[in-house]
């Protein structure tokens, strides 16, 4: 295969990551000390800065072309972002998210006023990362998708608060997508050229158990898919042409457990055919994700990053098996439009998955080795 196909100059890249990394012990200790009022916010930031600098160097040493800050300043992959907007407050639910084997901490985000972007801590976080990386790699920002934000706002008792502030849902949709759009443009102005929307909502719709609930509670699965599509597409409409927007469709990733299962078939026509992103990071690390046939719905020249290497467990995958699966996927999306990554990040929350940092980097190295063998 020619170098024009194997050597990409924009995201996604042939060997890639989803974004989050295991928190080093120094960072865990600092966050615990801050929670106990033993160190100041400024002291915590100093530790975060040092850990992020170290992480960047490790990512570059691993040969990654697109790097993140590992989400080291966050407790959650999604809630910390939501709390950064005007009109959103941090609240605690009676119950956390329910995963296959565990329950998460019960934090949440709910509406307390009109949603608006005026300033957001993630802008400053990105600026720091961009300064550290410089021109050595592409700097990626990961945030939850608008559909994920909406799903949090209507979760359990949160919906009562939402209805008081936004009795007209169309006004909510307009404010939410505008806040996203304004945030994205502010991020772009700081140099961001790769934005990743992390999204569990589509994975939930693929799960027959969750789908039954959504069909009853939301007026039908088809209408809910249309709403998710509307929110995501309107938030990323009319952006600069050189900003690459991708999405990661997640099945849940908490302490090596999962939340949903089921193939992509129920959402493939909408998600793969109509969401206006440049590429999809998709989980295919075990049987819970189904087969590759739904990929036939991927429209136009969109790229697909196959998440075939699990980030949940340390056991290395067999190279020949992964290569065979990439070949199988190429029956539905041409090989030149495929890439390889871990199925998710290594620490969607600060608890992290059950493997060591050394095992984490071995996984990333395995992704690179396989990609270089497949694409050159």
Automatic annotation (TrEMBL):
InterPro entries: Met_Synth_C/arc, UROD/MetE-like_sf. Residues 18-351 form the Cobalamin-independent methionine synthase MetE C-terminal/archaeal domain. It holds the Pfam family Meth_synt_2. The keyword Transferase applies. The keyword Methyltransferase applies. Keywords: Methyltransferase, Transferase. Its EC number is 2.1.1.14. GO terms for molecular function: 5-methyltetrahydropteroyltriglutamate-homocysteine S-methyltransferase activity; zinc ion binding. It comes from the Bacteria. One of its GO terms (biological process) is methylation. This is 5-methyltetrahydropteroyltriglutamate--homocysteine S-methyltransferase. It comes from Turicibacter bilis.
């Amino acid at each position: 295969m020619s170098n024009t196909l194997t050597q990409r100059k924009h995201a996604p890249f042939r060997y890639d990551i989803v974004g989050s990394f295991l928190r080093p012990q120094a960072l865990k200790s600092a966050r615990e000390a801050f929670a106990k009022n033993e160190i100041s916010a400024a002291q915590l930031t100093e530790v975060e800065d040092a850990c992020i600098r170290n992480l960047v160097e490790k990512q570059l040493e691993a040969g990654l072309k697109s790097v993140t800050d590992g989400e080291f300043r966050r407790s959650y992959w999604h809630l910390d972002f939501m709390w950064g907007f005007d009109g959103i407050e941090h609240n605690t639910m009676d119950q956390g998210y329910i995963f296959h084997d565990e329950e998460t901490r019960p934090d949440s985000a709910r509406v307390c006023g009109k949603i608006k972007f005026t300033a957001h801590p993630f802008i400053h976080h990105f600026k720091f990362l961009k300064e550290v990386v410089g021109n050595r790699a592409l700097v990626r920002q990961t945030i939850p998708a608008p559909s994920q934000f909406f799903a949090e706002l209507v979760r359990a008792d949160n919906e009562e608060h939402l209805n008081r502030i936004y009795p007209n849902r169309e006004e909510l949709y307009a404010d939410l997508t505008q806040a996203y759009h304004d945030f994205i443009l502010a991020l772009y102005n700081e140099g961001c050229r790769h934005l990743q929307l992390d999204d569990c909502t589509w994975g939930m719709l693929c799960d027959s158990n969750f789908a039954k609930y959504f069909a009853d509670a939301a007026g039908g699965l088809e209408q809910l898919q249309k709403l998710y599509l509307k929110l995501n597409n309107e938030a990323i409409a009319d952006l600069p042409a050189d900003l690459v927007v991708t999405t990661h469709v997640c099945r849940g990733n908490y302490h090596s457990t999962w939340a949903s299962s089921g193939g992509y078939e129920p959402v493939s026509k909408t998600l793969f055919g109509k969401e206006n992103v440049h590429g999809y990071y998709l989980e295919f690390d075990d049987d819970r994700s189904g087969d590759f046939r739904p990929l036939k719905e991927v429209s136009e020249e969109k790229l697909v990053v196959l998440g075939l290497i699990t980030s949940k467990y340390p056991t290395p995958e067999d190279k020949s098996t992964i290569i065979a699966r990439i070949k199988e996927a190429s029956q539905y999306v041409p090989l030149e439009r495929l890439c390889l990554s871990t199925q998710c990040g290594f620490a969607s929350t600060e608890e992290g998955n059950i493997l060591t940092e050394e095992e984490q980097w071995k996984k990333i190295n395995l992704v690179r080795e396989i990609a270089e063998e497949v694409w050159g």
